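Exercise 7.
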Amino acid sequence: MGRTPKQDTKKKNAKALFITGQYQQKEIAELVGVTVQTISRWVNSEKWDVELASLTITKEKQLARYYAQINEINEAISERDKGQRYANSKEADILNKLSAAAQKLESETGVRDIVDVSIGLLEWVRGFDVEKAKELSDLFDGYIKTKL
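Solution. The predicted structure, written as tokens, is:
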């Protein structure tokens, strides 16, 4: 048995509420008119919790973690005796990987950035064309899934 358009709308609304991170599953169930078990099934089967987690860590936080790790390795190296203040092969490899990851992250548009822009644009469009906002919402959802 396939889902109806009404069920699809409830599911989309539930996901939008879940992804904000501001509602419990029970609250979402009440707001969209489904059971808590249905929300739980959707969260688990479509991995909404993984998507939420990927959105909650900002690019800046992750960059700060990379740079803190790089700094910690460099501090450990600087505390060595004179003439021994260089990275061994393992440290050099880790430093290269952390630096590359930080550089890649700095040059990419993060999923959180895409979501923020998408939400802003959808709210703006919804102000004068609800149907167009619904259409764009489906497109944004598909695009964001490709970036996760």
